[in-house]
Specification:
16 strands; 20 helices; 500 residues; 4-stranded mixed sheet; 5-stranded parallel sheet; binds adenosine-5'-triphosphate; single chain; alpha/beta; binds magnesium ion
Length: 500
């Protein structure tokens, strides 16, 4: 028998689990415990946690030379999840657990000093990758349901190291983890009916929800922009099982799936405007998905849009077109999915009242131009719908009738999305290309697009985006073809930011 114990595990590149083998050799020599193979700081510290955990459960490292190699050596190993495979490797090398049996499971988990296992990021992609390689998976108990969702993999979800040892020596077997709850919970957030009046803003919100389209709301303070945005996620349909897997993978890698629960509703992320570029688009010292990836297949809400630092805003441009973000690291490029719907809100100027003769400041309209110039043209060009939100008059608030409830509007949105999907192309209209949009366009609708494009100086992107809005309006109306009226409404949403 080889004197080396081998435990499979994974490193993460984006949401991809890359196989890593933990090799442990116990050799004669001066007592030492070494970890080699490009470990980062957290992995180097594993050594101390493994040593302490073994001591806590009444085992100690043999008084020999213990070498841990993480292969392949040229791949950077990040994170604390290497604790468990290292500990299992040491236990196998010491013949506390059978080597052959342990080698059939990929392992990941963080060890506390007392030998209990703490949750780590990446269990879901690791479980899928382990299944593909016909391995089982060992992970912390609380993440058992997350791993079990991968389906084809045998999962050992252990609360602590002694429970795992008992399982491997067949003293006491671990129960199979429960399957996660796959039913999406009904929407319990704020209801659209709480917004009085604002019919045209609500219409734009419904179109944005139905098409997965980007929406910019411009208006004075207190007009209800943030209020409307918070009600968008309630209008969106549940994720399909395949989408739920995609979204859950990103959240798993970010360590944000709690209690093994999967994500069945479109995510809603609203980063503060002080967010750094890495926090927004991903990366940084330890590569992690950013807000735009956490919003994958959901909504990214940028409140007080012009207050975001310019580099952060410009970093959004590429992902908004491609649906993914690529981060350069010292020795590799990492890609995360980032197909999000962007909802932005802003005041027309810094003091907020541009265009309101009673309240605008002495610097108008200059202050509005300065403020809006923080947003580049290409960024504004990516907003499919731009609307003005004016506060409802003081006398109307009480009188405005209570409008439709979230559930009513969500049902129309779901029906429109079904029609989009039934055409067999894009998942939602935001992802439809010109080739998909053109065949069902009436001749007079196309003529209107062409004249408007020339008059409004629409970019090519602007035209395609206007057609996506028109297609969505037609889907909401249950129309097979996009007609002139649909295009006319769509073009009304393509106007410029007021005062720009
Ligand atoms: N149409 C409305 N119906 C009911 N309440 C409203 C309406 N518009 C505004 N409000 C009330 O005003 C509050 C402020 O609205 P909100 O925070 O959405 O404004 P805003 O447009 O985002 O302002 P700011 O530009 O300052 O961020 C809401 O929390 C709500 O209580
Ligand atoms: Mg607001």
């Amino acid at each position: 028998m080889s004197s080396i114990a081998r435990i499979p595990t994974f490193a993460f590149a984006g949401i991809e689990a890359v196989p890593v083998e933990v090799q442990v050799q116990v050799a004669p020599g001066l007592p030492a415990f070494l970890v080699v193979g490009l470990p980062d700081k957290a992995v180097a510290e594993s050594k101390e946690r493994v040593r302490a955990a073994l001591t806590a459960i009444g085992l100690s490292l043999p008084p020999k030379r213990v070498i841990v190699n993480l292969a392949p050596a040229d791949l950077l190993k990040e994170g604390s999840h290497f604790d468990l495979p290292i500990a299992l490797g040491v236990l196998a090398a010491m013949e506390v657990i059978p080597r052959d049996a342990a080698a059939e499971y990929a392992a990941l988990g963080e060890l506390a000093l007392d030998g209990t296992l703490a949750p780590v990021s990446g269990v879901l992609p690791a479980a899928i990758a382990a299944g593909a390689r016909e391995l089982g998976l060992v992970c912390p108990a609380s993440q058992g349901p997350e791993a079990a969702w991968a389906g084809t993999v045998e999962v050992l979800a252990a609360p602590d190291l002694p429970a795992l040892i008992n399982h491997f020596v067949a003293r006491q077997l671990l129960p199979a983890p429960a399957l996660p709850d796959v039913e999406a919970e009904p929407w319990r957030g704020p209801d659209l009916a709480e917004v009085r009046g604002q019919e045209s803003a609500k219409r734009a919100l419904e179109i944005a929800a139905a098409g997965g389209l980007n929406l910019l709301m411009v208006g004075p303070p207190g007009a209800g922009k943030s209020m409307l945005a918070a009600r968008l996620p309630g209008l969106l349909p549940d994720l399909t099982p395949a989408e739920a897997l995609d979204v859950s993978l990103v959240h798993s890698v970010a360590g944000m799936l709690s209690d093994g629960k999967l994500i069945r509703r479109p995510p809603f992320r609203d980063p503060h405007h002080s967010a750094s570029v890495p926090a927004l688009v991903g990366g940084g010292h330890r590569a992690r998905p950013g807000e735009i990836s956490l919003a994958h297949l959901g909504v990214l809400f940028l409140d007080e849009w012009p207050e975001f630092p310019r580099p952060a805003l410009e970093a959004l441009r590429q992902p908004m077109e491609t649906g993914r973000t690529t981060i350069s690291r010292a020795n590799a490029h990492i890609t995360y999915p980032a197909r999000f719907q962007c909802i932005a809100a802003m005041n027309p100027c810094r003091c907020g009242f541009l265009g309101d003769p009673a309240r605008e400041c002495a610097r108008a309209p200059g202050c509005g131009q300065d403020y809006q110039n923080r947003l580049s043209g290409p960024l504004l060009d990516r907003m499919d719908l731009v609307i003005e939100v004016q506060p409802i008059a003081a006398t109307e608030l009480a009188r405005a009738p209570v409008g439709e409830r979230t559930a009513t509007v969500a049902a129309r949105v779901a029906a429109a999305r079904d029609r989009t999907r039934a055409r067999g192309g894009a998942r939602c209209n935001a992802e439809a290309g010109f080739d998909e949009l053109q065949p069902l366009l009436d001749a007079d609708a196309l003529a209107l697009v062409e004249t408007a494009a020339a008059r409004l100086r629409l970019s090519t992107r602007g035209q395609v985006r206007a057609l996506r809005v028109a297609r969505t309006i037609a889907d909401l109306a249950g129309a097979k073809h996009v007609g002139r009226a649909h295009v006319a409404e769509a073009l009304a949403y393509r106007h410029r930011v007021p005062g720009r």
